[in-house]
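Title: Comparing notes on inverse folding

I've been comparing how different people in this forum approach sequence design from structure. To keep things fair, I'm posting one structure and asking everyone to reply with a full sequence. Here's the target:
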């Protein structure tokens, strides 16, 4: 009976060791899995941010091009009629810009152009001191007019 108890005790001890090793392995797998999910989530969020940044950069380039295009269109209007002042609009595909030519007196003109693409707004401002021939004294991107 004593031998039987010793044998049972050894078997129970071995089962306990195997059971503890199983828990350690399971816990290790869970920890490694959680770390892998965290890394994958971080990479996914970084990729989404990078794609969004690229999209906003593209919108900014297009909006800048449209605003400059509107200044060019306003210059054409002035070239065609030196006394031109007023508003205009230019559309290229889905992109739209608008411009306003203001007579500052004499042959001085100011052109304000604005374009919005996506969520990006770009504005350009040009100053002319002569209209025949056109002389541009300033052309710059501005935050506001």
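Reply #1:
Here's my take.
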């Amino acid at each position: 009976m004593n031998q039987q108890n010793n044998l049972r005790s050894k078997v129970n001890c071995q089962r306990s060791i195997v059971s503890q090793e199983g828990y350690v392995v399971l816990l290790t797998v869970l920890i490694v899995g959680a770390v892998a999910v965290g890394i994958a989530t971080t990479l996914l969020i970084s990729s989404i941010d990078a794609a969004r940044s690229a999209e906003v950069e593209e919108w900014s380039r297009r909006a800048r091009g449209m605003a400059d295009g509107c200044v060019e269109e306003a210059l054409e209007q002035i070239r065609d009629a030196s006394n031109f002042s007023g508003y205009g609009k230019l559309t290229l595909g889905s992109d739209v810009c608008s411009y306003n030519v203001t007579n500052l007196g004499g042959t001085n003109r100011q052109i304000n152009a604005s374009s919005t693409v996506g969520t990006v707004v770009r504005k350009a401002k040009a100053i002319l001191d002569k209209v025949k021939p056109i002389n541009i004294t300033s052309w710059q991107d501005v935050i506001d007019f």
